[in-house]
Each structure stands twice: as structure tokens, then as C-alpha cells.
Design a protein that fits this description.
GO terms for molecular function: alpha,alpha-trehalose-phosphate synthase (UDP-forming) activity. This protein has 16 helices and 16 strands. It is of the alpha/beta class. It folds into two domains: about 240 residues, Glycogen Phosphorylase B (Rossmann fold, 3-Layer(aba) Sandwich); about 200 residues, Glycogen Phosphorylase B (Rossmann fold), CATH 3.40.50.2000. A ten-stranded mixed β-sheet has the order 3-4-2-1-5-6-7-10-9-8, sandwiched between helices. Helix 1 crosses helix 16 and helix 12 packs across helix 13. It binds adenosine-5'-diphosphate-glucose. The site of adenosine-5'-diphosphate-glucose has 18 residues, from helix 13.
């Protein structure tokens, strides 16, 4: 009889009915096993409040740990989002090394491990999500946990050289080797992770491709994440949503949807749209870019800077190109209801995903799922988004090349129907193959079989 599933993630849904692809997939997996989901509480800790608070219980339990304001600053904004996030997204210039960041990051992981250790049985499966919890398995092992522990990294695996930016670079491989399975988004990420182990004298490669690291064995595989494809397509088709979008969106609509993050390549996207406007014939149909980008992590300086930069570019371009009855860039700073978003995707003739680095990028998949297959729009997709590995029939662009992106926008608008249909069908197939339910079940079944825990396989 297999044990329960225990999930650890930074965010945890607090409402009764979780929504959003990843959340629903995890929720479904947990319901099947009567497990436990643990994440950070949105409210700061009160005095002495360092345990787990139950926030929901039906067929499984959701519990949250509280962060003090100091922990939030040093662990979440600090080590997670001012060291690991820029490091993994190729922005080592933005990495801020502060001793207190690393100390607090390790202390929070140690505390979460202590809160969890007694609740994990030997036959349970533990699924840890993302860069907030890299050392968690190591801490759990120190407390005697022998259950299988898997890790999924939602963001890019950093290149080997970038790891030297960390205060203690050797820890990274040691942290990962305490898991039984390390899941990554793409084959490229897997190659970089294996390169890290290959260059580490403490690691040995086994015949079956697993890595022996000191007294542990870890498997490294890619599990490209996706969306709830059919549910999202249905949302986009809903006639009431289409009717609700009655406002004039311009003759040609390009859409962009991102958290306001420097990794998403937004300034270059705006500049490319400006270059496209510069080049268009005076009698060409008017085109608008609708950019939905709610700010995040605004207490980190780099996030405030990107917001200011974008507002300047949008203001300049609108000043240069607007007419009395037309504003070419509409820039919305808040989150949009998912049903409205699905309707907007369906209405847009093109979608711009221009990340400079991105683990996967679910917006690319949502846009494709939302299209009318008979008359689909065109996805313009950065080569540096994980999604580009399998969505090769999108219009792939280099997000550093403004001219190439401007040309891609014109190509998308001029593309013959037959070509649009063929490209869309190929992209949709890729989206279906990575549906989020498949992603979750593939990860968990691999975790249960990837390496017999504590086994020592034959050496090569
Ligand atoms: P994110 O960096 O958050 O995720 P992404 O994959 O694009 O990036 O997911 C964003 C999600 O938020 C999408 O579902 C999108 O619809 C939604 N969203 C964004 N802006 C919104 C808005 N204004 N209103 C409503 N919804 C909005 C991280 C990694 C990615 C990886 C995912 C999942 O950085 O590379 O794909 O995790 O693993």
C-alpha cells in the first residue's frame, strides 16, 4: 500500500476551490492520495508563530508556515529572488550577495524540514517545487527522512559558470543530490544539470544514467509542464466572454501577458512593436499591442527599474504614433480574470512571448489552446523560452534582435490562412502532449520508480 503524497511549494492556494493549471494538477494528485500540501502563508508571522497552520481540509490537508518580515525580506526577496532567480535567468549582474540572505534561506529550509519530518512516513512521496526549497531534502535527510523526495525546478537550470556566483557554489550539487529525482523543464536544462554533476569530483555516473553523489543516487529528467488544454480552450470559446469583450480592440491585435519581470524581455518587445509601426505603410490597417503585465516583487530594485523603463518606452511610442482615435500600446498593470484572458487570446491575431530566459512559459501554450483552429492567430515565441523546444512551428525569434521581432509581427499579420492553420495544428499537438495532468502523473510515477532509495547501482 503506497503512502500519501506530501507537496511543498512557495505559494499555496488559500481558497476552497483552487484554480489555475498547476494548482489544479497538484490538487487532483493530492486528492487521490489523501496527502498534505505545505506552503508559505501570505500573512507575516505573529510572535511565536513558527508552526504549521491548517488552512483547508477535505480529502487532503493544506497547511501553511508563516514567515516573519525579516525572513520574507532575506529568504524570499533576498536569496530566492535576488540571488537564485537572476542567477538562473542569466542575469548574474543582478545577483546581490548578502550573508544574511543565505543564512536565512538555510534557516527557513531547516525550519520547514523540522515542521515536516514527523509527518512524513517511510512510504510517502514528497514533491518539492522550485528554487525556494533547494536545500529542503538535505535537511529532511539529516532528520532521518528516508521517503522518496522529488524536486521540480520551474525556472531554467543555470549554466555551470553562473553557479560560481553563489557564495558557496559546491552546495548546489549537494542540495540536489539529496533528492531521488530532479525534474527540469527541458532537455537543455537536463543537459546543464548533468554537466554540473559531470564536472563535480564528488559525482559518478551510473550505467542507467543516474548520478551517484557520495552515498546517494539521484535521477535527472525533463518533464515539460503544460496547461489544462481542453478546459482552457473551452473557456476561450465561451460566447459570453467574447460578447463581454465588446470594446474596440483595433483592426489588428497583438497580445502580451506576463508578470512584470526583467526575464520576460518586455522593453525589447515594445521596441520591436515600435519598429513595426515605423515600417508599416501609411494605409496599412492599424495595429495595437495589448500588454497585460501586473507588477511583482516590487521591493526588489530591479523590478522597480523595469517598470519605469517600460512606462517610458510605452509613453514615447504612444506619443509618436497615437492618433485621436487610436492608441497603439495599451498597457494594463493588473491581473485579468482567466475567462477574459482566454477570450482576449482568441481575439488576438498574434501573441508575443519574448523572454530572454524562461523555464517554460505557459502563456505561449494558453494562446495556442485558445485559438479557433479554423482561423488561428500566430504565436511569436522567443528561442530562449523552454516552450520553444517543442513548439518549433511557432515563429521563433531572437528576443535581442528588435528588427527580427518587428519583421515577425508583420509576417504574422500577413500569413496566409493555410500556413496559420498548419503552424497552429503543430503547436497545439505539442501543447496537448504536455498537458499539466500528464506532467504531474509522469513526474510522480517516475519518482516512484526512478531509483530504489539508497540503492548503490553498478558503476560504469
Ligand atoms: P511564470 O514566470 O509566472 O512561471 P508563465 O509560465 O508565463 O510564467 O505563467 C504565468 C501564468 O500567469 C500564466 O498562466 C498566465 O496566464 C498567468 N498570468 C500572467 N499575467 C497575468 C495577468 N495579468 N492576469 C491573469 N493571469 C496572468 C514560472 C516560470 C515559467 C513556467 C511556470 C510553470 O517562470 O517559465 O512556465 O513557472 O512552471
Amino acid at each position: 500500500m503506497p503512502g500519501k503524497l506530501v507537496v511543498v511549494s512557495n505559494r499555496i492556494p488559500t481558497g476552497a476551490a483552487p484554480s489555475g493549471g498547476l494548482v489544479v494538477a497538484v490538487h487532483d494528485a493530492l486528492r487521490g492520495s489523501g496527502g498534505l500540501w505545505v506552503g508559505a502563508h501570505p500573512d507575516p508571522a505573529g510572535p511565536g508563530d513558527d508552526g504549521l497552520t491548517e488552512i483547508a481540509r477535505d480529502s487532503y490537508t493544506r497547511c501553511a508556515f508563516h514567515l516573519t518580515e525579516e525572513e520574507y525580506d532575506n529568504y524570499y526577496l533576498g536569496f530566492a529572488n535576488s540571488v537564485l532567480w537572476p542567477l538562473c535567468h542569466g542575469r548574474t549582474d543582478l545577483v546581490e550577495i548578502e550573508r544574511r540572505y543565505e543564512e536565512t534561506y538555510l534557516a527557513v529550509n531547516r525550519r520547514v524540514a523540522r515542521l515536516l519530518a514527523d509527518r512524513i512516513g517511510d512510504d510517502d512521496q514528497v514533491w518539492v517545487h522550485d528554487y525556494h526549497f533547494l536545500p529542503l531534502a538535505q535537511e529532511l535527510r539529516r532528520l532521518g527522512v528516508v521517503a522518496r523526495i522529488g524536486f521540480f525546478l520551474h525556472i531554467p537550470f543555470p549554466p555551470l559558470g553562473a553557479l560560481s556566483t553563489l557564495p558557496t557554489p559546491d552546495d548546489f550539487a549537494a542540495w540536489l543530490s539529496a533528492f531521488d529525482l530532479v525534474g527540469l523543464q527541458t532537455r537543455g536544462d537536463t543537459a546543464r544539470c548533468l554537466e554540473m554533476f559531470r564536472s563535480d569530483p564528488r559525482a559518478e555516473f551510473m550505467r542507467d544514467g543516474t548520478v551517484k553523489f557520495r552515498d546517494r543516487v539521484v535521477a535527472v529528467r525533463s518533464f515539460p509542464i503544460g496547461i489544462e488544454t481542453d478546459a482552457f480552450a473551452e473557456l476561450a470559446r465561451a460566447p459570453e466572454e467574447q460578447a463581454a469583450l465588446g470594446a474596440d480592440m483595433g483592426e489588428k491585435l497583438v497580445i502580451g501577458v506576463d508578470r512584470l519581470d526583467y526575464s520576460k524581455g518586455l522593453p525589447n518587445r515594445f521596441r520591436a512593436f515600435g519598429a513595426f509601426l515605423d515600417d508599416r505603410a501609411p494605409d496599412a490597417p492599424r495595429a495595437s499591442l495589448l500588454q497585460i503585465a501586473p507588477p511583482t516583487r516590487e521591493r526588489v530594485a530591479a523590478y522597480r527599474a523595469i517598470r519605469t523603463e517600460l512606462e517610458e518606452i510605452a509613453g514615447r511610442l504612444n506619443g509618436a504614433h497615437s492618433e485621436l482615435d487610436w492608441t497603439p500600446i495599451r498597457y494594463i498593470h493588473h491581473a485579468v480574470d482567466r475567462a477574459v484572458l482566454a477570450g482576449l487570446y482568441r481575439r488576438a491575431g498574434a501573441c508575443l512571448v519574448t523572454s530572454l530566459a524562461d523555464g517554460m512559459n505557459l502563456v505561449a501554450k494558453e494562446y495556442v489552446a485558445a485559438q479557433d483552429p479554423e482561423d488561428p492567430g500566430v504565436l511569436i515565441l522567443s528561442r530562449f523560452a523552454g516552450a520553444a523546444e517543442d513548439m518549433t512551428e511557432a515563429l521563433l525569434v531572437n528576443p535581442y534582435d528588435i528588427g527580427e521581432m518587428a519583421t515577425a509581427i508583420a509576417t504574422a499579420f500577413d500569413m496566409p490562412l493555410e500556413e496559420r492553420r498548419a503552424r497552429h495544428a503543430a503547436c497545439l499537438e505539442a501543447v496537448r502532449e504536455t498537458d499539466v495532468s500528464v506532467w504531474a502523473s509522469n513526474f510522480l510515477s517516475c519518482l516512484s520508480t526512478c531509483v530504489p532509495t539508497m540503492r548503490m547501482p553498478e558503476r560504469r
